[in-house]
Amino acid sequence: MTDPTGKSKGFGFVSFEKHEEANKAVEEMNGKDINGKMLFVGRAQKKAERQAELKRRFEQLKQERLSRYQVNHLFL
């Protein structure tokens, strides 16, 4: 994707006919270094879906931290 001057916006979208092809692209390209820049390749998500996923991950990390805290401290 480019801005009106033709400069790259640094992102783009690709559509695949087969789900397997999309998964393969993510596996092979995500994290790859291209000209000193690390690529992020993932499935496009709607804003609400992305926010729900981030909230779920945050809650999971919070629970992991709480369980670690409880295991590492003994009260006598």
From TrEMBL:
Q: Gene of origin?
A: Pabpc4_0
A GO molecular function term, named singly, is:
RNA binding
Q: Which SUPFAM superfamilies does the entry link to? A: RNA-binding domain, RBD
Species annotation: Mystacornis crossleyi
Cross-referenced Pfam families, in alphabetical order? RRM_1
Q: Does the keyword Cell membrane apply?
A: no
- Give the matching InterPro entries: Nucleotide-bd_a/b_plait_sf (IPR012677), RBD_domain_sf (IPR035979), RRM_dom (IPR000504)
- Keywords annotated in UniProt: Repeat, RNA-binding
Name of the protein in its database record: PABP4 protein
**UniProt domain RRM: residue ranges:** 1-46
Q: Does the keyword Aminoacyl-tRNA synthetase apply?
A: no
